[in-house]
């Protein structure tokens, strides 16, 4: 049986990015990894509505050499311990690798859909980054973007002010049996 899913960008949704030189950057060690605990009740609400919860993240620090796999695994173990996620997918590649799983390409979403039998047209991507909106478009999901400086000027299905509004938008569209194919 296929099920709808919520794809959640890790950095900026599940954890707070660090700020370096006025720019948001992902943490490179567990000691820099700050969980956004305030989203936990909202994630539980999505689970209660029958959604699979899948975190996705680009982690090019692995291939660039400034993020160890050990530290990434420690951060992801904490994410899995705190949040009711069904799975977490990451791409360790740099842009120059032209990897099909590196967002904005849809590979992470397609891989999750295959593994979990996900109904992509009835699934949603919640993020604050344009790369996720583009991956959603390519995979046939609806993007719900949280307003940020990283939204970009490309395609967005919905733009909302915060995570609570994103969850409300998803639940409303889901109740209407909305599909990107409609």
Task: Explain what you see.
The chain is an alpha/beta fold and 182 residues long. The protein contains six helices and ten strands. The strands form three sheets. Strands 7-6-1-8-9-10 form a six-stranded parallel sheet, with helices on both faces. A two-stranded antiparallel sheet has the order 2-5. Strand 3 and strand 4 (23-25) form a beta hairpin. It is globular, with a radius of gyration of 15 Å. The model has no long low-confidence stretch (mean pLDDT 94).
Tell the overall outline.
globular
Number of helices in the DSSP assignment: 6
Structural class by SSE content: alpha/beta
Q: How many beta-strand runs?
A: 10
Radius of gyration: 15 Å
Percentage of residues in DSSP E strands: 15-25%
Task: Tell me roughly what share of residues is in helical segments.
Answer: 25-40%
Mean pLDDT: 94
Q: Describe the main β-sheet briefly.
A: 6 strands, parallel
Low-confidence parts:
none
Secondary-structure element order, N to C:
EEEEEHEHHEHEHEEH
Report, as a whole number of angstroms, the end-to-end distance: 21 Å
Strand order of the largest sheet: 7-6-1-8-9-10
């Amino acid at each position: 049986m296929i099920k709808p899913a919520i794809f959640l960008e890790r950095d900026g949704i599940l954890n707070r990015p660090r700020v370096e030189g006025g720019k948001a950057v992902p943490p490179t060690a567990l000691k820099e990894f700050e969980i956004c605990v305030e989203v936990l009740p909202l994630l539980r609400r999505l689970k209660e509505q029958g959604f699979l919860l899948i975190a996705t993240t680009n982690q090019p620090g692995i291939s660039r050499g400034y993020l160890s796999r050990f530290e990434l695994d420690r951060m992801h173990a904490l994410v899995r311990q705190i949040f009711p996620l069904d799975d977490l997918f990451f791409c360790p590649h740099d842009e120059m690798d032209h990897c099909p799983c590196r967002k904005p390409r849809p590979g992470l979403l397609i891989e999750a859909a295959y593994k979990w039998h996900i109904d992509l047209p009835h699934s949603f991507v919640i993020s604050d980054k344009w790369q996720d909106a583009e991956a959603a478009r390519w995979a046939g999901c609806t993007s719900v973007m949280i307003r940020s400086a990283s939204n970009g000027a490309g395609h967005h299905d919905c733009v909302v002010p915060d995570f609570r509004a994103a969850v409300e938008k998803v639940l409303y569209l889901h109740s209407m049996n909305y599909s990107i194919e409609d």
